[in-house]
Amino acid sequence: MIIPARRGKFLEDILTIADILLTDSDDLVQKGYGWMLKEASKPHQEEIFNYVMKNKKVMPRTALRYAIEKMPPELKRRAMEK
């Protein structure tokens, strides 16, 4: 899903997959879906930012940090606030 996410495709599917994996405790799973969200944020920054903000209380920090990695500093700061 990384390449299609980078190209702006399958946003609904990406968010559904992220929902399924949201609270997975495996570090590699968290990195994987965080990376997928990061790539999807390039063409869909607002949608991914809204997803992160909606779920940040339950989203593992590893996934959250990956998802916001390429966002502007102000959005990163808001996402990392507790």
Describe this structure in words.
The protein has one domain (2-80). Helix content is 71%, strand content 0%. The chain has helices at residues 2-6, 11-21, 27-41, 45-55, 61-68, 73-80. It contains 6 helices and no strands.
Give a short synopsis of this structure.
The longest helix has 15 residues, at 27-41. Helix 3 (27-41) packs antiparallel against helix 4. The protein has helices at residues 2-6, 11-21, 27-41, 45-55, 61-68, 73-80.
Secondary-structure element order, N to C: HHHHHH
Radius of gyration, Cα only, in angstroms?
11 Å
Ranges where pLDDT stays below 50 over 5 or more residues in a row are none
**Main β-sheet description:** none
The coarse silhouette is globular
**DSSP helical segment count:** 6
Give the integer mean of the pLDDT values.
97
Structural class: mainly alpha
The amount of beta strand, in percent, is: under 5%
Summed up, the domain count is 1
End-to-end Cα distance, whole Å, is 29 Å
**Tally of DSSP β-strands:** 0
**Helix content bin:** over 70%
Detail the topology: elements first, then pairings.
Blueprint: H1 2-6, H2 11-21, H3 27-41, H4 45-55, H5 61-68, H6 73-80
Keywords:
82 residues; mainly alpha; 71% helix; globular
